[in-house]
Design brief:
Helices cover 28% and strands 33% of the residues. The protein has 5 helices and 8 strands, in the order βααβαβββββααβ. It has an 8-stranded antiparallel beta sheet.
């Protein structure tokens, strides 16, 4: 007999960030893949399994393609014994871009996790209408709704691991977008300063090299690992 567990998380989007910036960060799938607490690396795969594409959870896949990644997680099997109690597991994780964010699905050893991340408007009195969680005074909100399906006897263990992996993702996505915005603002500020300095400097003759050759990496899959 199977069991289900639902997790809802919401994070307010600061007024100096736009909904489009947050959606763009979500649709760079490396964002949520790298921000999950248990994940240690991922690699994009060339194809998605046909049985996954048949899931009615997805938006029409001919209009919204599904992309699949091979994901590696480090899971603690026996607490208190250090590295000996940890195990690396690898499984497929699928992503689909939708207008308000992304849908994802991960399958491993009889466990299926579906998670949808959406940027939505804040509701009346700063509540997210129908979401069941107040998030303060916010015009826009990032929400995650996750569902886990597995055997009932596995649920107590899987539930805790899933909540650990997903609890802070929305907050971390917002923090990452804020950091990227600060980096862009800093680069623009430095660029303007250099333009002002350059305008007041004595013109110099620039000599172009005879030939420049750039070597590009061959196309193919890319493995990404992170601490």
């Amino acid at each position: 007999m199977s069991a289900k567990h639902h997790l809802h998380v919401a994070a307010s989007i600061p007024p100096h960030l736009t909904p489009g910036e947050v959606i763009a960060a979500l649709q760079d799938h490396s964002t949520t893949l790298s921000l999950q607490a248990l994940t240690t690396g991922h690699e994009k795969l060339p194809n998605t399994a046909p049985e996954i594409l048949k899931d009615t959870y997805w938006f029409p896949t001919d209009l919204n393609p599904v992309h699949t990644y091979s994901v590696t997680e480090c899971v603690t099997i026996l607490p208190g014994v250090g590295q000996m109690g940890r195990k690396n597991i690898t499984f497929p994780s699928c992503y689909q871009n939708i207008p308000s964010g992304i849908k994802s699905r991960a399958d491993v050893s009889g466990v299926t996790v579906r998670a949808e991340y959406r940027v939505i408007k804040g509701g009346m009195e700063s509540e997210v209408a129908g979401e069941g969680q107040g998030i303060g005074d916010a015009e826009w909100v990032l929400v995650e709704d996750a569902e886990i399906n597995c055997s009932w006897w596995l649920m107590p263990f899987i539930k805790g691991k899933m909540e650990l992996a997903h609890r802070d993702i929305c907050r971390k996505v917002i923090e990452k977008v804020e950091m990227q915005r600060r980096q862009v603002d800093l680069a623009q500020s430095v660029g303007r300063s250099l333009q002002v300095d350059g305008a007041s400097a004595t013109p110099a003759e620039a000599v172009a090299p005879e030939q420049q050759v750039a070597e590009l990496a061959a196309p193919g899959s890319q493995k990404i690992f992170y601490a």
